Structure formats: structure tokens, C-alpha cells
UniProtKB/TrEMBL annotation, chain A:
It comes from Hermanssonia centrifuga. The gene is GET1. The chain crosses the membrane at residues 6-33, 103-122, 142-160. GO terms for cellular component: endoplasmic reticulum membrane; GET complex. One of its GO terms (molecular function) is protein-membrane adaptor activity. The keyword Transmembrane helix applies. This is Uncharacterized protein. InterPro entries: Get1, Get1_fungi, Helix_hairpin_bin_sf.
TrEMBL record, chain B:
It comes from Hermanssonia centrifuga. The keyword Lipid metabolism does not apply. It is found in: Cytoplasm; Endoplasmic reticulum. This is ArsA/GET3 Anion-transporting ATPase-like domain-containing protein. Residues 30-323 form the ArsA/GET3 Anion-transporting ATPase-like domain. The active site is at 61. PANTHER family: ARSENICAL PUMP-DRIVING ATPASE ARSENITE-TRANSLOCATING ATPASE, ATPASE GET3. Keywords: ATP-binding, Cytoplasm, Endoplasmic reticulum, Hydrolase, Metal-binding, Nucleotide-binding, Transport, Zinc. CDD domains: ArsA (cd02035).
Amino acid sequence: MTLIATIFALVFVTELISWIGKSVLLELAYALYLRVFYSSKRSQQQRLKSEILANKKELMLTSAQDQFARWAKLRRSVDKGLADLEKLNSELSSAKTSFSLKFNTALWILTAGSQFVVGWWYRKAAVFYLPPGWFGPLTWWLSFPFAPAGSVSCGVWQMACRRVIKTGERVVKELMSGKQRILYDRWLHKYPLAIGGSCLLIYCIGSPGPVSVPSGAQEGPVPDKSS
Amino acid sequence: MSETLEPTLQNVLDQTSLKWIFCGMSYSCCGKGGVGKTTTSCSLAIQLASVRESVLLISTDPAHNLSDAFGQKFSKDATKVNGFDNLYAMEIDPTSAIQEMVEQSDSNGMMGSMMQDLAFAIPGVDEAMSFAEIMKHVKSMEYSVIVFDTAPTGHTLRFLSFPTVLEKALGKLSSLSGRIGPMLNQMTSMMGGQADQTEDMFSKLESMRAVITEVNTQFKDPEKTTFVCVCISEFLSLYETERLVQELTTYEIDTHNIVVNQLLFPKQSSNCEHCRVRQGMQQKYLNEAHELYDEFFHIVQLPLLTEEVRGPAKLKDFSKMLVTPYKPAE
């Protein structure tokens, strides 16, 4: 049961992240990161920007012909401010590059990486056992690649979860945009696999008792499969 | 801080470690059109000649302005100036120097022309190269101080003071030579060319690099090189001077003298209206210049004379004003 829930949760998180968008998350996280670690630099940048703007405005108002010394001094300060700002910007952008690398790595480990690891680690475990005879020859495929016969393997379970969540996402989206009719057609005609996945999901969540793994059934085929 | 630096070029004369002195403006805009650059550099050279062992005055202007000023024909070999014991002058046409280089590399056949394309693909490189060549050439001639009448333009300055870009490119080329050199050699010998051409080309590139690096170290040393800005008391000229000063600062080239030329000092009794108006304008900009540069610069004021400053004798008289500030006649 925990395996079922864990895999579902993992897939759900992955899909959620991809739905929100990695770049959006990155922006949010980066803003937070800046606020925590680079607050002084950021405020310095802001100050510099406003300073440059003020100086520029003054420079525009100063006549070069009438007050050359003042004008030249203002220009010097503007130029210097711009150079400083450039330096600061490049510093911040390099910080951003390194941060985005770290963040993307962390995201990957949290989602795809951990899915892969879980799938590999429990490759021989059955997520749950199917009632015998429901799927006929497809039973073999559902336990692909290493899970005991008559069960659902981690890989297939992950896939099913993903399809269901994706479909759910689409349903939500299309419901929100008020296209129920189209949705219904598509739902019936185009996503049989998704339907299958949802059935499985509903089945196992709704009645966990009867299909829970018999003790010691991890190795070898289910005894009554041949009958 | 508020104490004003004295308005003379005495500091240049006193600094005996100086080897290179540039006079001029950075851009062609008003530098060419007679702000008194040549007069100033000649005067400075004359004054230097009185305190230093030997002085060389170089102009790279094709207009032969040195010959004009001294009333004597100069060529691209250093010639002693009439009336002085230790003052020499030479005029070099920079385009001819480039021409020479091109011809030289042309004789190398295919590889030579390739190298030439490579080297001249970047704007300003040719000028920087010829300038560096001149400096190298002159350096071997053992003068205690050298005054350049024509200042290098912005591009050239950048290359001479930031040789890292050029060095990188040339360094890459020479490291490439280690790898593809032998192959190229084989290729050329197969095609019937001379085998040692490529080596020649790469060694030439290497020597180019050495020259530029050396010039650069001299340039950035304030003990050895200084830049004397020459301007007139007008808006555009001041504007260009400010740009030049900023540019020199970014290139880390020392500059702490500004010569303000062609100032009008009409007599009290004079009733020339033009002169009065113009003097007012000049004084206005002069005040601005003082306000802007007083802290770090010696500002030298030179008057506009009623006659052209030509010939050794007049130049000698004029040059005294670089050391003792000009007092307008009452």
C-alpha cells in the first residue's frame, strides 16, 4: 500500500511541477534565494539604478555649454555608475546561472531521479495483485518487466498514474474553459489507456483489502493463476 | 586639495624618468585643425632639450607640420634641428610604414598574404602595429626623451593599452603553429613552395606580440609615459579633452597636464569688439576647465600671438611660456 501511495505521490509531484512550469518555479525560488543571500547586493543595485536615473535627469537639464564643469562631472558620475551597475549585473547573473543549475539538479533528483530509483529498487516487487483472469493475455504485460506474474509492476503503475493525472489535469483545464462536450468525446474515443488506468486506480484505492499482497507472494507466480 | 597645481609644464621637465611624451587630442575632429598641437610639442621639445641629454621629436602627420614649424626639411631619419645641439626631429608617414610591411609579407607568397589578411582583419591593428614598430625602432636609437607630436587615435590607444585581446589571438595562432605547422609545411612542399615559410610567418607573429607587449608596459608606467592634452578654450575642444582624459584614465595612461592654447588677451586700450566678445567666451570656458581639472591637472595657459610662431627663434621664445606663465601686457 505504501509503495502504491509513494509512487503515486512521486508522479503527482512530477506532473505538478511540469504543470506549473520549471521556469516559473525557478523564478520564484530565485527571488527567494536573492532575498535571503544577496539582499545587500540587490538593494545596492536598486540604489545604483535610481541614482543613475537621477543623475541622468540632472545631466539632461544641465546645459553643457553654460555649465561645462558641472555637466562633465555629472557625466563622469553617470558613466561610473553605469560601469558599476554592469559589474553588479554580471555578478548577479552569474549567481543566477549557478543557482539555476543547482535548482534544476535538485528538481530532477526530486522527480525523475527518485522515480527511476524507486522503480529500479522495487523492480521485483508487486505493487498489487490483480484479480485473476481479468485481463487475459495482457496480465503478462502489466507485470513487465520483473514483477511476479499476475501483479502490476512499478513501471506500469507509474505510467498509469501519469496518464490518470494528465487526464485529470486536462479535465480540470477543459472544465474551467467550459468545453465539456468536446471533453466527453475525447474521453470516450481517445484515451482508452487513461480509462484503464483510472479504473485500476479507483479499483485499488476503493478496495484495498481483497487485493492486498498475500504474504510471501513476492517470489514466484500466484498459486491459482494456472487454474 | 583645494591648492591649485602650478600652471606650467615644469613638472614634465623635472620628471627625468620620462621617456615618452605625447601631445595631442584624441580625435580628428578638432585635434587636426590647429589647436596648436605642433607648436606646443615643439616648444616642449625645446624646453626639454635644455634640461635633458638628447630629445627626439616625432611627427607621424603626413602634412609635414614639423618641417613647417622649424622651417627645415625633415625626413624619416632623425635629423638635428638647426640652432640646437641636442634636439632631433623626424617625420614618418605611417601609411608608408604599413606599405612596407605589406610589401614584405607579399614577398612571402601565399602564406604571407594570408597572415596579412589575418592581422589586418581587426580595425586598428595595422595602425597599432605601425605605431608599435615606430616606437620599437625609435627606442633602439638611444634618446633620453621622445616627444610625439601626433597622438595615436582612440583605436590605436585601445590596442596598445589593452594588448590582452591581441595577445590572446596571436598566442592562439602561435600555439596552433605547433600543431598544424608541420602539416602546413608538408603541404607547401608538396605544392612546390618553400618549406620554411610557415615557420617564418609564425615567428613573425610571435615577434609582433612581443613588440606590443613591451610597448604596453611602457605605456602604463606613469614614470615613463605621460600625455599632454592640448586644447583651446572652446566648447568642442573642451568636450573632446574631457573624453580624452576619461579614455586615458580607463586605459591607465598617465595624464596630468592640459595646455590651453590661443587665449586672447587684448590690450586695455584695444577697441576691437570681436576680441572682447571672444575673450569673454574663452574666459568662461577657462573657468569651467579650472573648476573641472584644478585638482589633478596642471593647466597651462598660452596666448594667441599676433604673429605665426615659426622658426627656431620664435619657437624658443614661445617655449619659455611653458615654464613661466604668460603675463598679458598691461
